Amino acid sequence: MAELEHEARRMQEEGTLSREEIAHLDFAALAAFWQSDTGREIHGRAKQVRRELPFTARFSPDELTRTNTKTPKLLEREFVLVQGIADLVVLLPKEIWLVDFKTDHFEESALAEKVKLYEPQLRLYALALGRVYHRPVNRVQLYFLAIKKTVPVELAGTNSGIEQCL
Fold first, then answer.
1. 34-55: pLDDT as tens digits
2. DSSP per residue over 12-77, as a string?
3. Whether the model pTM is above 0.85
């Protein structure tokens, strides 16, 4: 936990996190992630890890349908610019892993509903990162801090979409 607190202070000094954001961090839940199998596996690839990774990608509305993202009919001949910041990305030579941390407070019985809520966002992020870095995003996970649980996100059709977009 001391290492995480030190990292939070470093991120504050560089302007990535504000004092208020740090005050809301659940260091125990973050430590639980890094002690999990997923966290240890990612830590073992520390040189390929990028945190708070900004990205911008351009898509046609048709391409976005693969992520269950709805666009107005008005845009069908236009393009859509997608910008985001990925919480944690592992940029490997032939693939990408994406982990998104969620701070929602809820009972574990609502987990499936929460996963369903965030799946379109993560599919969109996967599509964008695949386009930007020219490799597939093969692993996408949500980590819910409140219940200290990692959940894989099914990319059903998104990866094939990534390969077609490259």
1. 999 999 999 999 999 999 999 9
2. HHTTSS-HHHHHT--HHHHHHHHHSHHHHHHHTTGGGEEEEEEEEEEE-HHHHGGGT----GGGTT
3. no
